Amino acid sequence: MKALVTGATGFLGQALARRLLSQRADVSALGRNPAILAQLEREGMRAIRADLADGEAIRAACQGQAFVFHVGALAAPWGRAEDFYRANVLGTQNVIAGCATHSVQRLVHVSTPSIYFGLDSLENVAEDAPLPARPVNEYARTKRLAEGEVDKAFGRGLPVITIRPRAIFGPGDTTILPRLIDRLKTGRLPVIGDGRNVTDLTYVENVVDALLLCATSPDATLGQKYNITNGEPTALWPLIEKLCAALGYPYPSRRVPYRVADGAAALMELVYRLLPSQPEPPLTRYSVALLAKNTTLDISAARRELGYQPRISVEEGFQRFVEWWLSSQH
Fold first, then answer.
1. CB 3.0–4.6 Å: which of 28, 32, 63, 66 could bond 4 by disulfide?
2. CA–CA separation, 161 vs 218, rounded Å?
3. Smallest Cα–Cα separation from 154: which of 222, 98, 211?
4. What is the rounded distance in angstroms from the CA atom of residue 21 to the CA atom of residue 43?
């Protein structure tokens, strides 16, 4: 199998590229981090340093590939609209153009369930759920636009399939749990809301399983979108309490009502948008909602049509993350 992985220097991209290599695939790893690219090259991959917005470079990278896994994106709760558009919309357009030009056998596109969420609790959300009138942030807005580009490409005959993985975690995670740990370490994280909200998490290797299933799934799955989670909704604050115990941090003693935290976050967003460099505020309305609201997905379509079955539980994945984190801090 000849495969191109975009975003190969990111958390999920690295995991996918290494799994493909372990299965004797001929892997081209595309990304922007030179140190990680150099490491992937030493491991036996072809390293391509390129920006997703560079149409010529992306089209060239697609040449000769049987499969393209489009993992690359700008994923953040805050940032400039034009940066998200360049990475997520223009980047996806470039990948689609490369796949079409070079008759790639199948494109597997990584989207996000952030497109479903406003600021209210959502439970057991299916792929055809109505989307909010206003996307929750620029990441969700541009990923939704990118899905529109994928839909148009499928309509033109491109063989493409999309997954929406939720809250990916595991060894190598640089976002989900590390952001929590940073807040816990500095004592800046209060319990927001009633502390009883439930969320979905997805262990990184389970997402890799889903991506590989998409590469060989029946033609009837082309053009479809699939939610991917661990399939075990988890109480968030008890998990954070376990994380505190494992890493030796005190569990937050302060409690802040959701409405108060949401109001404070809205004010911070207003102020930070006026600052010259528009740095990320300590709290956003989206991050407050994630910490206080239920956010779970229905993965029955992926189970039924892809044969997806999460292999590694949240408990086991959590233990693996903690072991990796402790060992990486020395």
1. 28
2. 11
3. 222
4. 9
Backbone angles phi, psi at 64, to 5 degrees: 80, 5
In a 3-state reduction of DSSP, which class is residue 136?
coil
Secondary structure string (H, E, C) spanning 202-247: EEHHHHHHHHHHHHHCCHHHCCCEEEECCCCCEEHHHHHHHHHHHH
Backbone φ, ψ for residue 226 (5° rounding): -135, 125
- DSSP 8-state code for residue 282: S
CATH at 206: 3.40.50.720
Beta bridge partners of 256: 192
Provide the annotated active-site residues: 139
Q: What is each CA distance from 231 to 8, 207, 218, 276, in whole angstroms? A: 26, 12, 22, 42
Residue 38's domain spans which residues? 2-167+202-231+296-312
| 159 domain-assigned | yes
pTM of the model: 0.95
How many domains would you assign to the chain? 1
Q: What is the C-alpha separation between 200 and 296, in angstroms, rounded?
A: 5
Distance CA 107, CA 4 (A): 10
**Whether the Cβ atoms of residue 235 and residue 207 lie closer than 8 Å to each other:** no
263 occurs within a structural domain: no
Digit-coded pLDDT (tens) for 256-294: 999 999 999 999 999 998 888 778 898 899 999 999 999
What residues are paired with 30 via a beta bridge? 6, 48
Mean pLDDT by 10 residues, the chain (330 residues): 96 98 97 96 97 96 97 92 96 98 97 94 96 94 98 98 97 91 89 96 98 97 98 97 95 94 94 85 91 96 98 97 90
Paired tokens of 163: 């997954």
Note whether residue 283 is domain-resident.
no
Give bridge partners of residue 226 from the DSSP assignment: 163
Backbone angles phi, psi at 167, to 5 degrees: 50, 70
Is 180 a domain residue? no
